[in-house]
Amino acid sequence: MDIEQANYLIRTLSETRSTEVKTWFDPTLPEGKAKLVKGLHALRNFDGGSLVIGFDDETLLPDIDTAPADVVRTFHADAVQETVSHYSSDPFDVELHYPELDGRTYVVIAVPSGILSPVAVTRDLFGKNEKRLLTCNDIYFRTLQSNNRVSSSKVTHKDLPDLIRVCFDNREADIGAFIRRHLSGLTSEHIAVLSEALLPSREPRPSLDDQLEALLDDGEKRYAARVAQRNLTLPPHGSMEVALVLTGTVPPTAPTLTS
User: Fold this and answer.
1) Residue 59 CB burial class (10 angstroms; 0-12, 13-18, ≥19)
2) Is the pLDDT of residue 124 over 60?
3) Exposed/middle/buried for 24, CB within 10 Å: 0-12, 13-18, 19+?
């Protein structure tokens, strides 16, 4: 995302599974930190999106009354990044933009895609009167399951298929990128050599004629060996050989005639 995209986002604002809208809050307070962590974790686990701060999430109108005097200083990029990393099992980078609308500055926090495994909360966070705001090991996701509205909520069993799909899709893309990166300079001859080295070699299946000739040769050798074993001297004689190859499954059989 760049600043032009951030400006366009707040001018065409709508809350979706990849865009969360929040009114102004103090990111230095425990309650504000919890909002950051929940929202950004949920977007990360949904494979990226944007957290827009400074608008009413019901009406999507600018929240003018509670805006901080210095938006950039209040939502400083380093401070937001530190908060996210502090509570993330797999820290990820976020990108802050400060678009303007009607002369007022707002905050758009862009969360990258590419998640390979879910991000979870790493520690508890308590607010006023020891109210638990974050719980270690909780996983958040952008979902419709919580209240039939798009929200950032704890993962439920209904969300697991979507969450797992996102991670597997990114892993497949990651493997594909790895293969393309390392095989991009190889020729067809190189790939053929690699295939021969990596795949087990398979001898070609002999033709039917080859099978019959092999069977006849084997019979002739066995005949000669038996004659030699018995020390026989045979008179001149003629002979005829027949070979039969059965293909497919042969059912169990037993001889019915003897001679």
Assistant:
1) exposed
2) yes
3) buried
* Tokens read off for 215: 């069977």
Q: Say whether pLDDT at 259 is over 60.
A: no
> Token pair for residue 128?
């006023």
pTM as predicted = 0.67
Does the pLDDT at position 178 exceed 60?
A: no
